[in-house]
Amino acid sequence: MTIKDYLEDKRLAVDRFLDEVAPAAVTPPATLHESMRYSLLAGGKRIRPILAIAAAEAVGGEAPGLMAVACSLELIHTYSLIHDDLPAMDNDDYRRGKPTNHKVYGEAIAILTGDALLTMAFDWISRPDLMKGCDPARQIRLIQELAYGAGNRGMVGGQVLDIQAENRDIDLPALQTIHKHKTGMLIRAAVRMGAIAAGATERQLDDLTGYAEDIGLAFQIADDVLNVIGTREELGKNPNTDAERGKKTYPAFYGVDGARQLADECVARAVRRLSSFGPTADPLREIARYITARKH
Amino acid sequence: MTIKDYLEDKRLAVDRFLDEVAPAAVTPPATLHESMRYSLLAGGKRIRPILAIAAAEAVGGEAPGLMAVACSLELIHTYSLIHDDLPAMDNDDYRRGKPTNHKVYGEAIAILTGDALLTMAFDWISRPDLMKGCDPARQIRLIQELAYGAGNRGMVGGQVLDIQAENRDIDLPALQTIHKHKTGMLIRAAVRMGAIAAGATERQLDDLTGYAEDIGLAFQIADDVLNVIGTREELGKNPNTDAERGKKTYPAFYGVDGARQLADECVARAVRRLSSFGPTADPLREIARYITARKH
């Protein structure tokens, strides 16, 4: 199976799970559920859930509740996009080629939709039916990881730093701190949660954490590069918005070619972190390489 | 101990816990943590955590992690106030007598502060240090209750219904559905979580759930009445804002006197629900009576 087939296969499984488990659009409060589904089923790459699944496969153990664990990460990611797109934040009109949530449902519903998706992430990873067979102590650990990666010391903390850095002259270490938190911590949580769900040893967890940190950085650099060189069609949103907003990016420090090279180095380092794993970690290896090759 | 002393005593314990466990304002990202503390330590009544503590006392069993459980509810409540006050929602400038979060930190930080507090609630009730001694299976159940009460089928669902009802002619059942979710479900979660933390039997949990539903309604009716008759000093915010916004309230359906009578009936029913409990449930009984007597 090629990595493209693997990603497509897992993406469809994630989409199917999200579609089945998210509340139906006719269930009251219907507007809220419709809005949640609008953003959740808007066709993302599902990279975080796929990383969780691939990490569990790399470890190889039974992982009861893995789909709920994986998809809880997509709920968090989706809520963060909805809030990020709000007029008070990035004020984006398009996302994944469609009007942003607040353009369709209004700002108030968009804020609440984000809140509901965030809360639902913790609902799903604590639901007895979805997590059947998962040891409660392991489940608590998964919840800890999600809260840590998504919260003040993780993603939200990074978003605050990102806002504060707009139109200010920040240096490279400050940029790295922003990205380590804003994108890196949830990717780290995804890989770790998949590994923990499958009963990883501490050694395995350490290696996979290193892998996650490296690809998180590669992912962000690649995103920054795409923002400069991508077209509206490829990105599903307007290109070059970072520069227009005065956001500091990796290409701004290194140039496009330098940034690309840096991303390649991160990918190589990530793959080396998996040296103790056999072929079960091949999807993780391929995903790392795919990050810098993608067009959107 | 009078109920006033009891409430004051527990309120101080909650304030102390929140102050100690919430990240210090100097810890990076400092602005986020400062903003979280600004709203969290703004001197609320702490009624939800106190209800959780009083429910645990009524049951009487050991309740490891009770303060974290109780305070997770205040984190949820505080985040909901911050998001509710935003210009896109209620657009309130004052809360608890102080400028609202977004008036001080701006809208973007206010949104993220709410997101961080919401996430931190799930962090606290899954943290090994704060929940030490709590059985993991029980802990999962507590997390389920919190997610259910706070999310799309609970508080956030009610907020969506509330927004949709503004300036529309809704009937009494619709108003009841709004309040049952918007305020009721988190109060219900508070009482149930306290009871579960203390190892309540199913029978005890049923009785306490009934109590919680009754006082939740009484609380909302009393709030509506206060919004009409309270002064700015008593409320810490502008009075009569509901009518100005075209919000339907209990006094609008029943008149102020009729609404007060209805609240009293709810309180009496709530107290009757506790008939199988002995004196350990006295604080719960007194809290029910206090709801309709308070001035803010």
Quick structural gist:
The structure is a homodimer of 296-residue chains. The first copy, chain A, contains 14 helices and two strands, in the order ααααββαααααααααα.
Protein model, in words:
Two copies of one chain form a homodimer. Helix content of chain A is 71%, strand content 1%. Chain A has helices spanning 3-21, 30-40, 47-59, 66-85, 101-105, 107-124, 136-150, 155-165, 172-197, 202-229, 232-235, 241-244, 250-272, 282-293; strands at 94-95, 98-99. The longest helix of chain A has 28 residues, at 202-229. The first copy, chain A, is globular and about 50 Å long. Chain A starts with a helix and ends with a helix. In chain A, 55% of the residues are buried.
From the spread of the alpha carbons, the general shape of chain A counts as globular
Structural class label of chain A: mainly alpha
CATH architecture name of chain A: Orthogonal Bundle
Radius of gyration of chain A, in angstroms, nearest whole number? 18 Å
Low-confidence stretches of chain A: none
Strand order of the largest sheet of chain A: 1-2
Give the CATH H-level superfamily of chain A.
Farnesyl Diphosphate Synthase
Q: Major beta sheet of chain A, specifics?
A: 2 strands, antiparallel
Largest interface: A-B, 51 and 51 residues
State the helical fraction of chain A.
Answer: over 70%
Question: What fraction of the residues of chain A are assigned to beta strands by DSSP?
Answer: under 5%
Distance between the termini of chain A: 22 Å
Just give the CATH class of chain A: Mainly Alpha
Average pLDDT reading of chain A: 93
What would you call the quaternary organization? Answer: homodimer
Give the strand tally of chain A: 2
Q: How many DSSP helices of chain A?
A: 14
The name CATH uses for the topology of chain A is Farnesyl Diphosphate Synthase
Number of domains of chain A: 1
**SSE order of chain A, one letter for each helix or strand:** HHHHEEHHHHHHHHHH
